[in-house]
Amino acid sequence: MSLTQLARARVQQLTPYQSARRIGGQGHVWLNANEAADSGQFSLNCERLNRYPECQPPQVIERYAAYAGLAPERVLVSRGGDEGIELLIRTFCEPGRDSILICPPTYGMYAISAETNGVNVVEVPLTDSRQPDFDAIIARLGEVKLVFLCSPNNPTGDLVDRAGLLRLLNAAKGRALVVVDEAYIEFCPEHSQADLLAEFDELVIIRTLSKAFGLAGIRCGFTLACPEVIGLLLKVIAPYPVPDPVAQIAAQALSEEGLLLMRQRVDEINQLKAELAEELLQHPQVNEVFAPNGNYLLVRFTPGSDMFARMSRAGIILRDFANRPGLADCIRITIGSRAEMDAVRDVLQKEQ
């Protein structure tokens, strides 16, 4: 028996999540991972690196709770939002028996995390208006433990309709958890669903410091939920999930000065995004510019492969979504610095 054959059957057949870094590419302008163009400056105290860190660093929890407008007992910090997703699956789904529900096209890690844990995936595609099909989801609640919705959705940028979400939450009472991934919510904070946590114990929200906070490199995310759900997740999470240097940087990012820096970054990105969207809408090879709610724009070109290749030749690395359902010829452009957006603009203006 080979070592591969020793692995679980699902893992043998699994295609790993194709992160931007795994896909790679050759270039000098990296706009394929929805990263920020800067991170800010932080200081580190190395005096306690010989000690294991706190499982849930109190200052990080308290500051994020204050930022989110929640009680600290409703907040869990983890290694990125991805660990929050996996913790929910490991906590609430029995391998080989239970299922999650996703609405493709959406973030790929929901399905990958389920499959690696032996959990089935039910797919209910987005409607033609790119909204979750709430009627179809409600009809299948009896089959699933977790429903994953992404708002703004990655990669389309669409926001979950609040009226539909409320219908789903009412239908899910005592039956399933509804997880709203708000990784990009800082770019449209007025559309957060966090206020509904007080009303619905079935609602869980995933957040991260990777996007608007410019801290993708430290891998720090948050799960917001009722205290009962947080208590269950704490039974499953690793003993030391947040390294001390990560906790120090996160606490500084969540300070008054850090939040001001984040909001200034958001304003700059939203401005650059609006400028790029306006130019794209005038471009003869652009068929559609999708919803502009994150730190990226999904764009349907004619053809997408030609534009992707042109950008690549100029050293600009974008993310191709042409193989996703309903996203033929679609390319996602992360909003970077002004200089990086000028480089994109230069390619758009040539060879038309």
Strand line-up of the largest beta sheet: 2-8-7-6-5-3-4
Task: List SSEs in N-to-C order.
Answer: HHHEHEHEHEHEHEEEHHHEEHEEEH
By oligomeric state, this entry counts as single chain
Helicity level: 25-40%
Mean pLDDT: 95
Distance between the termini: 56 Å
| Structural class computed from helices and strand pairing | alpha/beta
How many β-strand stretches? Answer: 13
| Outline type | globular
Q: Sheet bearing the most strands, described?
A: 7 strands, mixed
Discrete helix count:
13
Radius of gyration: 20 Å
Beta-sheet strand percentage?
15-25%
Spans of 5+ residues with little confidence (pLDDT < 50)? none
Question: What this model shows, in words?
Answer:
- With 352 residues, the chain is of the alpha/beta class.
- 37% of the residues lie in helices and 15% in strands.
- It is built from 13 helices and 13 strands.
- The strands form 3 sheets. The chain has a 7-stranded mixed β-sheet with strand order 2-8-7-6-5-3-4, with helices on both faces.
- Helix 4 (58-68) runs parallel beside helix 10, helix 5 (80-92) packs across helix 6 (109-116) and helix 5 (80-92) crosses helix 9.
- It is globular and about 55 Å long.
- The termini are far apart.
Structure characteristics:
13 helices, about 350 residues
In short:
With about 350 residues, the chain is α/β, with parallel strands linked by helices.
